[in-house]
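Sequence, please.
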């Protein structure tokens, strides 16, 4: 898969930090077992020698990702993540018409390793997310997700517990969106197999606030990538 030039991903840069708009299908770090494929860390190190990725986004998730350019920056960002001082906002498109008004989901998550997580009240680590519905469609809802903690798959599994799986997230029973399901009279040509509007789950890290080394807020807005923007545009047109 061809990725854009690293420079073109940059939303913000100063002496200590780079924030990029991570494209989907690009891993944040080396995968376990080191497949040697391109990832954010490798691209960042080609751009800035001491670059370190300060947190992770799932491979399919797009959006704002902080990279430190030096050890001081990395420590500074890591402390903020540890103390839950980084303000993160994600957007997700979910199945169904769901009304969330400052809904807090506080369900512990157990990481079984091997990219599997489960809700486990006995063994799991505390995980908390706040959800708000932003826009209602006939069959879907655009949801704002604010993770307070930073567990693996946290937003995805917390939404699934509310019967609001992210579209396209087959791990949590989210179904992909097909144009034929929202556009009346949509016909495929004979023998054509319909592709989903988005070939991944619809989750994007939209907004991020953290402090630079000068203690001033760095405020980031990450525009939707093309596939997410197309999904929203088609829902606006055919499912409103």
């Amino acid at each position: 898969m061809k990725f854009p030039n690293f420079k073109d991903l940059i939303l913000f840069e100063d002496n200590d930090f780079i924030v990029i708009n991570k494209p989907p299908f690009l891993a944040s770090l080396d995968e376990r077992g080191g497949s040697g494929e391109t990832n954010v860390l490798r691209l960042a190190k080609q751009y800035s020698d001491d670059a370190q990725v300060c947190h992770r986004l799932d491979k399919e998730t797009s959006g704002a990702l902080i990279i430190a350019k030096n050890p001081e920056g990395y420590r500074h960002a890591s402390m903020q993540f540890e103390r839950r001082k980084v303000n993160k906002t994600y957007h997700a498109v979910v199945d169904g018409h769901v009304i969330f008004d400052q809904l807090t989901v506080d369900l512990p998550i157990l990481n079984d390793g091997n990219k599997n997580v489960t809700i486990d009240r006995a063994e799991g680590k505390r995980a908390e997310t706040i959800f708000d519905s932003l826009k209602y469609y006939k069959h879907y809802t655009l949801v704002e997700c604010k993770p307070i903690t930073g567990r693996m798959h946290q937003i995805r599994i917390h939404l699934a517990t509310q019967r609001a799986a992210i579209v396209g997230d087959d791990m949590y029973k989210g179904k992909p969106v097909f144009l034929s399901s929202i556009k009346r009279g949509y016909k495929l040509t004979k023998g054509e197999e319909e592709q989903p509007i988005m070939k991944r789950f619809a989750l994007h890290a939209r907004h991020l606030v953290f402090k630079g080394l000068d203690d001033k807020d760095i405020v980031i807005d990450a525009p939707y990538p093309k596939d997410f923007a197309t999904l929203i545009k088609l829902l606006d047109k055919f499912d409103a």
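The chain has one domain: 6-239.
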